[in-house]
Amino acid sequence: MNPIKVAVHGLGNIGKGVIDCLLSARDFDCLGVVRRASSLGSQAFSLRGLPEYASVDALMEARGKPDVAVICGPSRNVPADVRHYLEKGINTVDSFDIHSQIPQLVADLDQAAKASGRTSITAAGWDPGTDSVLRALFEAMTPVGTTFTNFGRGRSMGHSVAARSIAGVENACSITIPVGGGKHSRLVYVLPAAGASFADIKQRIAADPYFSNDPLDVREVGSQQELDSVADNSHGVLMERIGASGSTSNQRLSFDMRIDNPALTAQVLVSCARATTRLAPGCHTLIDVPPVALLAGDRITHIARLV
To answer: pLDDT of 227-274, one tens digit each?
Structure first.
């Protein structure tokens, strides 16, 4: 069977993790990395020997057309980036993580994917993503009940990227702190740019959709070294549901994991890249994807092994 040809779009923490996962799998051929032209030539070690290009057109001219592009940029860029690849007849996967916008994004990308006859899987990280599947399974097991998803304590990549995009911010790290009952607070460490007003930065962060709905504590740090001391990649989730199966109440379900955030997100993206080659055209989320489609190898073999 021919390997699945992949282009990686972006070389941040997730992009680096995606490269690692692709090189660790036997059924993928990574054609290269698409990056901003201004970034070409930097981070050679992170490229792991892969070629880099300023556009997907340049990649295709040099290496041929990929089957799927793994989108590793900020969530706010995902809609445009995904459409760009779909229009070129390339499947896509992304880890878009603005929960409230996912239903509309799926509807919009579904039209774009079907128009090009390609497949897109969006919101394909661990939350949204694999946690979404577990929430669905929990509800299938106990249709009446309540699920609480408690994140952290840990560094949120999406919130950190959002904080870094605020005017006047040189660098930032956002820590998610669970307060129970599915509620969270945000602790944001900010390294202001030279001459920037920290008070203005705090106001801008508080008004941003990523932060406006949760308790927020924004703290100033004085150096990159000080920021590095709190910016590790650890994260996790504790998901709990209490509900009823039929008329039998007090069914208690739980799932707990402690992870390296970008590494797990990257692995889910790569598994979903595989699944795009097995699904009908359109836009899907992980609750739409048969689990067996995520796994390398033969379906019947997995049934014999896992069922």
So the answer is: 999 888 899 999 999 999 999 999 999 999 999 999 999 999 999 999
167 known ligand binder: no
* Residue 72 assigned ligand-binding role: yes
Q: How far apart are CA 57 and CA 60, in angstroms?
A: 5
Q: Supply 280's token pair.
A: 């009908």
The ranges assigned to domains in the chain are: 4-128+261-306, 145-237
- The class of domain 4-128+261-306 in CATH terms is alpha beta
CATH of 145-237, one of 3.30.360.10, 3.30.260.10, 1.10.10.10, 3.30.420.40: 3.30.360.10
Answer whether residue 1 shows pLDDT above 90. Answer: no
The token pair that represents 7 in the structure block: 């282009």
Instruction: Determine if residue 250 is labeled as part of a ligand binding site.
Output: no
126 is in an annotated binding site: yes
**CA 16 → CA 1, 61, 120, distances in Å?**
26, 23, 21
Say if residue 178 carries a ligand binding annotation.
Answer: no
Amino acid 231: pLDDT: 86
Is 80 annotated for ligand binding?
no
